[in-house]
Amino acid sequence: MGSKVRKVVIVGVGYVGSTCAYSLINQAVCDEIMLVDRTPERAYAQALDLSHCMDFVHARTKITPGTFAQCGDADVVVLCVGIRPKNIQSRLEVLESAYEIHEPLVGQIMASGFAGILLVASNPVDIVTYAVWRLSGLPRSQVIGSGTSIDTSRLKTLLSYYLPVDPRSVSGYVLGEHGDSQFPVWSHVTIGGKPLLDILAQHPARFGHLKLDDIARQTKETGLEIYKVKGSTYYGIGNALAYIIRSVLNDDHKIIAVSAILDGEYGYADLCLGVPAIITRSGMREIVELNLSPFEQEQLAQSAAVIRQAIASLPLPPA
Prior knowledge:
Blueprint: E1 7-11, H1 15-26, E2 32-36, H2 40-51, E3 62-65, E4 76-79, H3 95-111, E5 117-120, H4 125-136, E6 143-145, H5 149-162, E7 170-171, E8 174-175, E9 183-184, E10 190-191, E11 194-195, H6 196-202, H7 204-207, H8 212-230, H9 235-249, E12 254-263, E13 269-280, E14 283-287, H10 294-312
Parallel strand pairs: 1-2, 1-4, 2-3, 4-5, 5-6
Antiparallel strand pairs: 7-10, 8-9, 10-11, 12-13, 13-14
Helix pairs in contact: 1-9, 3-4, 4-10, 5-8
């Protein structure tokens, strides 16, 4: 009987990378996880520690340290490398160093014969995802970033507190940059299938205290709030990465807000933005184009301009 081992490589085993691996193990998403780090001893130690989970989970996942040369047979390679910004107000501050780290790294991955899905979690994720796409030479469908998946989850969680409902009963997306110019698409947020804007209009006594601008600001600033206290965010994004990987490996066709390379969608091309997309075994199968209000179109244009300006600063090779 033939079989295909589902293999995920995680590059960078700090907080985010190791939490992603932990989520994959607990959810039995794949058969094998390989950890790669610039400090091989740390990859070995993380693999050893994570291997001790196996007696307590319902499926065994083989987990080992490895090298870039061993990425060739992987289904997904997750990039979780980078440095922490000194100015915690902006993810864009670390762009130059992020590019310097990823340029040789992507070359080593591709030299292994890798032809799977590159999933980028490194910040600033939209710009790094674009750079990784250009450097890798892979089709745009095979290079995606975590994007606004975590911001969308934060939005749903906040709304679940205020309404109150289970966050899984909230549907909607945060679009644009995973950063300061992101925005919730209020015209498409629903609660149990009912538009949020209709709920607010019909029940002013119950929900008149809700200020959408305040919720949008809270959604944007939640990561900063966590960062100020504990120095990093990793549980939410680690689970978000596992969720995306599961949709790839299981060919789930889930619609997830990811950093995607646009080629005419929403009126933009040669640009990477956080947008909802159908995620399958082949990566990003299709971008879902929402009908945005005029104000939302303006917000997307502002976010696109921020990202395009940042991309222009990179010393990328000619397309």
